[in-house]
Design a protein that fits this description.
Elements lengths: L2 H21 L6 H12 L3 E5 L6 H12 L3 E5 L6 H5 E8 L2 E8 L6 E5 L6 H13 L1 E4 L2 E4 L5 E6 L12 H4 L2 E6 L5 H11 L13 H11 L6 H12 L10 H6 E3 L3 H17 L7 H12 L4 E2 L1 H5 L4 H11 L2
Parallel strand pairs: 1-8, 1-9, 2-5, 5-8
Antiparallel strand pairs: 3-4, 6-7, 10-11
């Protein structure tokens, strides 16, 4: 058995173990769990959007327990300061001498839950930019490297806009996926009540480590992608730009700015993960199509007409995919 085959077996088995463990507590939401795990394996961050009470915070908590990683949480509020996120210099007195010592903020962890991230001011939101992209923090001219792996899983409420600050495009682009958490069906509601309404709660065990996640990411980068599949991916991303002459009419009418090359990188990594989970050693066009919506929905900026007409990015993405064939 080749090294690649051994690594891919490790990837699939570890992924399924984590999914099963998280599923002990989280009811349904299989697609959400798979997409979050895919983003984590690819080294990306996730934005979870949904109304309160759907289990977004519980999902992140459960995932941290299953991964045996250091967990941190920040409840974002309008009065939160950047130093509350990354840390600050504190005056310490020891044996009659005073000195400045850096006190680590909650961002120094492996999995950071940024709860209701759109409630913080833009200045505080920007404090996460360097940590999300560069995996490091700079305070008072000194750079502090974060532990690997490091992931930000942020939540936001789409229906309550009072006292919120929409994330700027630059920060949205740093999220690997944006996932829409929906209401469970009748059976899902019943199962939630059964699991949480008694005296005992499911016990989550650590089934993977940070080293496992890092190894899974390396395995993904070894999966080959045929040129025609890569060209298909590029056409989809380029079709989200209204200035592209081959873009669908809907895109030209309703989109102001299309997706960035970072979106193409996310789609390529996620498509590789999907192929491996399906037991294949090559990426297909269907894999690319399947990951397009979570990778692109937050990277397309609608025009005034698009906002006024209530256009959904998902409909535009479907048009971009159709035009790519």
């Amino acid at each position: 058995m080749s090294t690649l085959e051994t690594n891919t077996i490790h990837f699939s088995e570890t992924f399924l173990r984590i999914r099963t463990e998280v599923g002990k507590f989280i009811v349904g939401q299989t697609d959400i769990i798979d997409n979050v795990l895919t983003a984590i394996c690819c080294g990306g961050h996730v934005l979870l959007e949904g109304v309160p009470g759907l289990g977004k915070t519980a999902l992140v908590n459960t995932l941290a327990k299953a991964l045996h990683l250091k967990f941190g949480r920040i409840q974002f509020t309008p009065d939160l300061l950047p130093s509350d996120v990354v840390g600050t210099q504190v005056l310490i007195e020891h044996e009659g001498r005073r000195s400045l010592e850096f006190q680590h903020g909650p961002v120094f962890c492996n999995i950071l839950l940024a709860d209701e991230i759109n409630r913080a001011t833009p200045k505080t939101q920007a404090a996460l930019l360097e940590t999300m992209q560069e995996k490091r923090v700079t305070v008072a001219g000194t750079t502090h490297t974060l532990a690997a792996p490091f992931f930000v899983l942020a939540t936001q409420n789409p229906i309550e806009n009072d006292g919120t600050y929409p994330l700027p495009e630059a920060q949205l682009d740093r999220f690997f996926f944006k996932l829409q958490v929906s209401l469970p069906d009748h059976e899902g509601f019943a199962e939630i009540l059964n699991r949480t309404g008694g005296n005992s709660q499911p016990e989550i065990q650590a089934v993977a480590t940070g080293d496992d996640i890092i190894a899974m990411g390396k395995t993904l980068r070894e999966i080959p992608v045929a040129k025609d599949v890569q060209d298909h991916l590029i056409r989809i991303v380029r079709n989200t730009h209204p200035e592209n002459e081959k873009a669908p009419d809907k895109i030209k009418k309703y989109v102001r700015n299309g997706a960035s090359p970072r979106a193409a990188q996310a789609m390529l990594s996620a498509a590789r993960a999907k192929a491996l989970l399906d037991g294949r050693f090559h990426v297909s066009r269907e894999d690319v199509d399947a990951v397009a919506e979570p990778a692109l929905r937050h990277r397309m900026i609608l025009s005034f007409e698009g906002e006024a007409d209530g256009i959904k990015p998902e409909d535009l993405i479907k048009s971009a995919i159709r035009n790519a064939y």
